[in-house]
Design a protein that fits this description.
The chain is of the alpha/beta class. The chain is built from four helices and 17 strands. α3 runs antiparallel to α4.
């Protein structure tokens, strides 16, 4: 009985501490990044770069002669409720560049409010854009509201991925509760051609265990590829790769959009499956170096 009393007292102290923190105006991470790419001789380079707060961008030397690589970094080390991040990127005519994240983004427990992330991409004529952030890891009690808007020229191409991992299963972490709203919109020549909203809230783990939602999986991803013309054999090659998937994967092609969905038991299995799919979509080009660390 004394042990039970001690445990209850400890719980009361923890809840009181949370309530106290909620009443304090804690410092929040704020970051804004605006950049553009331009053509310089045969290479794609930064045309402009504005960075404010906890968000930075760098362009390391690329091992690809066609695509340049730009890396986005969050110096705050992770995000929690009330943090705000915005990114705007523009690919100039005939540019070719990958925009990727330095590491997996971590979303920690929120005392109040949600992490808000806004990403807007604009891709000019005959440009090739790749949006390749690494996975977003949600911890128990996390809250995330994220949006991605992509505006394409009629002649441009776009390859993008968003992936979410609910807890690190190798460390026996479980996301019992939380909330996430992840929205995509893709426009071509001003016309909406793709829209998708992924949303979960409340008892996350219980919902993920349901066969119609997650079938027990704890890691999800979507890859979108769209171009002026997409060869049918690209769809066939992706489906061949899916046979070796450690989770579940499926690809469809309609309205000039190649969409691939993944469900995996954990982040490691998801990384395996999306890496092989991206290898097909990037025509055998190695993934950016930050993905290989």
């Amino acid at each position: 009985m004394p042990l039970l009393v001690a445990a209850d007292a400890s719980l009361d102290h923890a809840e009181a501490a949370d309530r106290t923190l909620e009443q304090i105006a804690l410092p929040r991470s704020q970051g804004a990044l605006r950049l553009s790419f331009k053509r310089h001789r045969e290479k794609t380079v930064f045309g402009s770069l504005y960075q404010q707060g906890c968000v930075r961008a760098r362009m390391p030397r690329s091992h690809s002669e066609i695509f340049s690589e730009a890396v986005v970094m969050n110096t705050s080390g992770g995000l929690t409720g009330g943090d705000r991040i915005s990114l705007s990127a523009e690919w100039g005519p005939a540019t070719a560049a990958s925009l990727c994240g330095q590491a997996a983004e971590k979303i920690y427990r929120a005392l109040s409010g949600a992490v808000e992330v806004s990403n807007v991409l604009r891709v000019g004529a005959a440009a090739a854009a790749e949006w390749l952030p690494q996975e977003t890891i949600l911890f128990n009690g996390a809250a995330l509201k994220r949006g991605l808007d992509v505006h394409l020229h009629e002649s441009s191409s776009f390859l993008g991925i968003e992936s979410v991992v609910f807890g690190r299963t190798a460390m026996r972490e479980e996301v019992v509760s939380g909330r996430i709203r992840d929205a995509w919109r893709i426009f071509r020549a001003g016309r909406l051609v793709y829209g998708d909203v992924f949303q979960l809230s409340g008892a996350i783990s219980e919902q993920l265990n349901r066969s119609a939602i997650g079938a027990g999986g704890r890691a999800f991803a979507t890859i979108i590829y769209t171009a002026r013309r997409i060869a049918q054999d690209l769809l066939d090659r992706l489906r061949e790769v899916h046979i070796q998937a450690r989770g579940r994967a499926a690809t469809s092609l309609w309205n000039g959009i190649l969409a691939t969905r993944f469900i995996a038991p954990d982040g490691e299995a998801l990384r395996h499956d999306i890496t092989h799919a991206l290898g097909v979509l990037r025509n055998g080009r190695a993934l950016p170096r930050v993905w290989q660390c």
